[in-house]
Design goal:
By secondary structure, the chain is of the alpha/beta class. It is built from 18 helices and 17 strands. The structure holds adenosine-5'-diphosphate-glucose.
């Protein structure tokens, strides 16, 4: 640990290592996402702790001893918040996934505003805050991740615990008209203004938050311009910022260059007889617009019959929230749609849609990215969307095209060089794909190289640095501009 640096305490719903029961035995599986990759060196250098739920609700598991070895190797402490099955049901599956997730993605009709969910959310947030209070001291910097834990600053203050504390929202923040539907809107806003810094993915999310705040507290005012501003609301003064999250660009680009991965990419192209590959990669979630995307492929083939036999659409769907009824229904809907489109167009030797419902190893995922001619990323709404950035990072040959939803946070940064589409507009997506097929090599390479430069510069390490700088700096200096 480097001396003189403020210790960092990261708090998220799940720890970066998950406990899983496999064949009757509990094992620790390290997480591999971008957040873990970016935070690990920072936690190691500054010294730090990551607090979260381990994924085990079984009272007989000795979680602490299971995590001790992992902590030693990682170089920072892992600390678990034990949760019962009932708590997980109410706070995670209930409040987080059935209220905040759909509401903040503008899908209010999917919300179940049950008061018992709200109570469970508060109870679990209080439990987390008790652990944060115990595991940190006044000089530490506390960084709370995401919508499951919006009440941390509020509860710490109510306990009389003083901390410098920041919050980052990974999902969008809705407009006032949508946010005002939340029965607990006032309490949530009151909780969020207790942070010293609240970070969003885009400037638009930040504007939406200010809009909601001013509906509820008309006297609230914003001072400053640029990526980080100061808000005065009642007796509170705090910072708001836009920090678009990103990926470890080099890790993806280098992996795509590795000879075995490049060979895999070539084998994929060969298996598909060097037809154009259109690729979709998502967690199986209703916000990702997968059914709409498959319908747009159907439209594409109906409108442009010359493409029959000349392209393949590959959709990789990563299993997610499988125990939830709505997600099971979505899976069925997608499978039926894939069947319908393949039934309508296939002929001997050609099946237009290839659908994979499984967790691919990373090198295989990267091989798909590297092989694809078009990255088709069309969420109905998304905080950022890392798949769009991963696709660009892996496209070392710079001859791919990114077709991107205008409602993904990533569009704010990538709009100049991606082909932007409305994910609800099947004709528009079909037209976009058709146009992208006809871009010249020069055009593709010009746009892709610009996209890659953007992702390489504003990578995940830049994201961590800029948030911490905004959270820890006493005065607001010059913050890198964020594209709106
Ligand atoms: P997600 O909704 O999960 O994240 P996204 O940003 O697209 O969405 O990230 C998905 C991640 O899953 C990617 O990093 C991808 O590589 C990974 N993945 C995809 N297929 C995989 C596979 N087969 N095996 C393993 N991993 C796979 C939320 C918000 C987003 C926001 C992120 C980060 O909803 O808007 O971008 O957090 O803030």
């Amino acid at each position: 640990m480097e001396s003189g640096m403020q210790k960092l305490v990261v708090v998220s719903n799940r720890l970066p290592a998950a406990l899983k029961k496999e064949q009757g035995r509990w094992t620790v599986n390290p997480g591999s996402g971008g957040l873990v990759t970016a935070m690990a060196p920072v936690l190691k250098n500054r010294g730090g702790t990551w607090i979260g739920w381990s994924g085990a609700s079984d009272p007989d598991v000795d979680v602490d001893s299971l995590l001790a070895d992992f902590s030693k190797e990682a170089g920072y402490e892992l600390c678990t918040v034990p949760l019962t099955k009932e708590e997980v049901d109410g706070y995670y599956f209930g409040f987080s996934n059935e209220i905040i997730w759909p509401l903040f993605h503008d899908l209010q009709t999917r919300c179940r505003f049950y008061p018992k969910y709200w109570r469970a959310y508060l109870d679990v947030n209080f439990k987390f805050a008790e652990v944060v209070a115990r595991k940190s001291d006044q000089d530490d910097y506390i960084w709370i991740q995401d919508y499951h834990l919006m009440h941390q600053a509020f509860f710490l203050k109510s306990m009389g615990v003083k901390r410098n504390i920041g919050f980052f929202l990974h999902i969008p923040f809705p407009t006032p008209d949508i946010f005002m539907k939340l029965p607990w809107r006032w309490k949530l806003i009151q909780a969020l203004i207790e942070y010293d810094l609240v970070g969003f993915q885009t400037i638009q999310d930040r504007r939406n938050f200010v809009g909601c705040l001013q509906r509820l507290m008309p006297e609230a005012r914003v001072e400053g311009r640029g990526a980080v501003v100061t808000v005065h609301a009642g007796n509170r003064q705090f910072r708001l910022g836009a920090f678009p999250i990103s990926i470890d660009y080099n890790q993806f680009s280098d992996l795509a260059k590795r000879p075995d991965v490049a060979r895999k990419a070539f084998e994929l192209k060969e298996a598909l007889r060097h037809r154009k590959i259109i690729l979709g990669v998502d967690r199986l979630d209703y916000t990702k617009g997968i059914p709409e995307r498959i319908r747009s492929i159907q439209t594409l083939l109906r409108r442009y019959p010359d493409l029959k036999g000349r392209m393949n659409f590959v959709q990789i769907a990563v299993p997610s929230r499988e125990e939830v009824g709505e997600y099971k229904d979505l899976r069925t809907e997608i499978e039926q749609l894939v069947g319908r489109v393949n039934g309508e167009f296939s002929f001997p030797g050609w099946v237009p849609v290839h659908y994979h419902y499984r967790n691919l190893p990373y090198d295989e995922l990267v091989a798909y990215y590297a092989a694809a001619d078009i990255g088709l990323v069309t969420p109905l709404r998304d905080g950022m969307n890392l798949v769009a950035k991963e696709y660009c990072a892996c496209n070392n040959s710079e001859d791919g095209v990114l077709v991107l939803s205008e409602f993904a946070g990533a569009a704010a940064q990538l709009q100049k060089h991606a082909y932007l589409v409305n994910p609800y507009d099947m004709d528009g997506i079909a037209k976009g794909i058709h146009r992208a097929f006809h871009w010249s090599k020069e055009e593709r390479s010009l746009h892709m190289s610009k996209l890659r430069e953007q992702v390489r510069k504003n990578n995940i390490f830049w994201w961590v640095d800029s948030f911490l700088q905004a959270g820890i700096a006493k005065t607001l200096g010059d913050f890198p501009e964020v594209e709106t």
